[in-house]
Write a structure and sequence with these properties.
This protein has 181 residues and is of the alpha/beta class. A hairpin with a 5-residue loop joins strand 8 and strand 9. The chain has one domain: NagB/RpiA/CoA transferase-like (Rossmann fold). It is globular. The strands form 3 sheets. Strands 6-3-2-1-7-10-11-12 form an 8-stranded mixed beta sheet. A two-stranded antiparallel ribbon has the order 4-5. Helix content is 25%, strand content 24%.
Length: 181
């Protein structure tokens, strides 16, 4: 099946099955971050839209535990960068309708939370089709050692994600029911 058909199918499914009560367990995320063994890691998150799994509560708890938080900013050249963010900072809405940091101090996350539309057991993902995260992951892997963690509902798993040369697998995907590595 083509990525576009899988994307369409799972966007519709996610909209139908979305429930605020389905969440990722903070304790699981925290224990996985602690295993990374980097002192004061920067956590790159995202602002959930279109019924994506909400990572904001996890980010808030991490910030309360003295972790540094960052959110993405979409640049004019269709590139994405991450900037420091605190929940006391103001946000502005970008051209896609997604809130992003207003005060901009560019950072490189050590751990990157990645939204997704669908995924497979090999931790390949399908996003919205813009390639923002694939390009960012490629750029980061050239410069830094980091971990990428996808957040998804368990019903977003598909048997197979068609992989193209520019696609990047994630280190793991955490769902409301299981961790895939």
């Amino acid at each position: 099946m083509l990525k576009s058909k899988i994307r369409k199918k799972f966007l519709k499914l996610r909209k139908q099955k979305f429930r605020d009560k389905l969440v990722i367990d903070y304790k699981i995320v925290y224990s996985l971050i602690k295993k990374f063994k980097k002192k004061n890691p920067i956590i790159g998150g995202y602002f959930p839209v279109n019924h994506e799994i909400d990572c904001l509560n996890i980010l808030k708890k991490l910030e309360l535990n003295k972790f540094k938080i960052a959110l993405p900013v979409i640049k004019k050249n269709n590139e994405m960068e991450f900037y420091s963010y605190s929940f006391v900072d103001p946000l502005k809405t970008n051209s896609f309708g997604i809130p992003e940091p207003f005060i901009k101090k560019k950072v490189n996350p050590d751990i990157l939370f990645v939204p997704l539309v669908a995924f497979d057991s090999k931790c390949y993902r399908i996003g919205y089709g813009g390639g923002y995260y694939d390009r960012y992951l490629k750029k980061l892997e050239k410069k830094f050692f980091f971990k990428s963690i996808g957040f998804a509902f368990s019903f977003q798993k598909t048997k197979y994600v068609p992989v193209e040369i520019f696609d990047k697998s994630l280190n793991m995907i955490i769902t409301d029911k299981k961790v895939y590595k």
